[in-house]
């Protein structure tokens, strides 16, 4: 495995696992192969993963119930991070659920489906633009979660899909241990935020490591990966690990083969000249934006 960074009160492997893909198509309904989903979770932990990202609105309820079945009683060093702030419609839609009572209900749903008395980390998923961060106060929502933390239901708080201003607003209410936003080789809007959080010792957890690439950017990445004898995702993951010491990765898969490929990325070495080539992907995206 790779090196470690603090998440809450524990040091976790920087290469973790995201459970979203364990649910059915569109992150809705049960998995096609329940036994395979359970096997992926068990092998991830057996391979040294001690940071799992989930949410009770994955499924809904599906991934948390799978995690409980596969891993409970949980290893002492395992940190499970969940998120609240949305609910799923009967049509699989993603709908904001940001009121204090809705957030409280979501925390209790996570507690019940994970089978725990206290949640390690709960991220507030801001839903201003649903698919991307947008400005607007999150004080009411984050204050509600801080109250649940004071009640002993949550150990640590984090944020997802937020702006730098929202991070500052939340930190004035309660400590923030992690921020989870879209970030990758081609989508580098959060460059400054990544670096600012590193100074503060706060984890940055990027999602969609291959999301938002243009065909030209994907082709460049694929060419570099082929030259290294690796997959494009492996190269993208290693670039993220090299990008900043506070970056924690949560690549997800429902396949044991892909899980093993993802974890093997920790052993991949990128020469400095290759890092320079990869950085140009983000620079090209910035120039064309």
CATH topology term: TIM Barrel
CATH H-level homologous superfamily name: NADP-dependent oxidoreductase domain
User: Which structural class do you get from the secondary structure elements?
Assistant: alpha/beta
Beta-strand content estimate: 15-25%
String of helices and strands: EEEHEHEEEHEHEHEHEHHHH
Cα Rg: 18 Å
- Integer tally of domains: 1
Main β-sheet: number of strands, strand sense, barrel status? 7 strands, parallel
Contiguous low-pLDDT stretches (5 residues minimum) are 285-289
The end-to-end span amounts to: 36 Å
Q: Based on DSSP secondary structure assignment, what is the total number of beta strands?
A: 11
Provide the spatial order of strands within the biggest beta sheet.
3-4-5-8-9-10-11
CATH class: Alpha Beta
Q: What is the helix content?
A: 40-55%
Taken from the alpha-carbon principal axes, the silhouette is globular
CATH architecture: Alpha-Beta Barrel
Number of helices: 10
Give a brief rundown of this model.
The protein has ten helices and eleven strands. It has 289 residues and is of the alpha/beta class. The chain has a single domain (4-288), classed as NADP-dependent oxidoreductase domain (TIM Barrel, Alpha-Beta Barrel), CATH 3.20.20.100.
């Amino acid at each position: 495995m790779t090196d470690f960074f603090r998440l809450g009160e524990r040091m976790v492997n920087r290469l973790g696992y995201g459970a979203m893909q364990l649910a059915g198509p569109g992150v809705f309904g049960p998995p096609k192969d329940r036994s395979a989903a359970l096997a992926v979770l068990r092998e991830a932990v057996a391979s040294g993963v001690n940071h799992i990202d989930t949410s009770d609105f994955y499924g809904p309820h599906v991934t948390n119930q799978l995690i409980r079945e596969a891993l409970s009683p949980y290893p002492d060093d395992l940190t499970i991070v969940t998120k609240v702030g949305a609910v799923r419609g009967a049509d699989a839609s993603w709908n904001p659920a940001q009121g204090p009572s809705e957030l409280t209900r979501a925390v209790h749903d996570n507690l019940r489906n994970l089978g725990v008395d206290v949640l390690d980390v709960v991220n507030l998923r801001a839903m201003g633009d649903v698919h991307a961060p947008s400005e607007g106060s999150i004080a009411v929502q984050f204050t509600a979660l801080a109250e649940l933390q004071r009640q002993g239901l949550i150990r640590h708080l984090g944020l997802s899909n937020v702006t730098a201003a929202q991070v500052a607003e939340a930190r004035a209410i309660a400590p923030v241990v992690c921020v989870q936003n879209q970030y990758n080789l081609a989508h580098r809007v959060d460059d400054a935020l990544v670096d600012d959080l590193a100074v503060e010792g706060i984890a940055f957890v990027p999602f969609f490591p291959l999301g938002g690439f243009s065909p030209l950017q994907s082709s460049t990445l694929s060419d570099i990966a082929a030259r290294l004898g690796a997959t494009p995702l492996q190269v993208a993951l290693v670039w993220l690990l090299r990008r900043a010491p506070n970056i924690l990765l949560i690549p997800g898969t429902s396949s044991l083969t892909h899980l093993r490929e993802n974890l093997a990325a920790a052993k991949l070495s990128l020469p400095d000249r290759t890092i320079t080539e990869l950085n140009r992907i983000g620079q090209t995206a910035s120039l064309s934006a």
